[in-house]
Amino acid sequence: MDYRQIITEKAAMMFRTYGIRAVTMDMLAGQLGISKRTIYEVFSDKDELLKGVLTWMAEKQREVMKKIFSESDNVIEAIFKMLDLITNHFQKMSPAFILDIKKMHRNVVENPGELKDFPYLQNNAEILIRGIREGLFRDDINIDITNKCLLEVARMSNDKDVFPPDDYPNKDIIRNFYINYLRGISTPKGLDLINKYEKNDG
Prior knowledge:
Layout lengths: L2 H16 L6 H8 L3 H7 L3 H26 L3 H17 L3 H9 L2 H4 L14 H10 L9 H15 L12 H16 L2 H14 L1
Helix pairs in contact: 1-4, 4-5, 5-10, 8-9, 9-10
């Protein structure tokens, strides 16, 4: 039995539903029907468990994103599917989880490496390159700079201190930030597709 996988998946579900602080190792052990000692044999403490959860969630996100981009006709279609997925991701996530990430476990999230951009977009460079190749994004943009800008746009759009969820629906924030930024780097062909998918999405 792969206890690491089982513990990680259950902890991810409980963290996202109740928040990190609300979930104790005793609660997790009870839900899994195993001893707390078994959990500590796999994860030394709660921070290590959280890091394992975030790594697992990020990997799942990458797999889904890869599937979306491989099955989409063009990069604009893929982006709209991706944004819908991200919107749903945050709608299903407890505000307590996001708050706990910011306040309790910032050191875990801000460690260098693959977690630093979680759960934001991680493949902007690939998106931009494909868009240029398809004639949907301008070929005179600096991919590295634009990539960093898009990442910061995604970060800002999820800042609950700036955009309280009761006042600003997440979907509206993402559309106003990310899509309008894409308009600025798109060719006329790309703009036509953005208008098409926005109309269909409305």
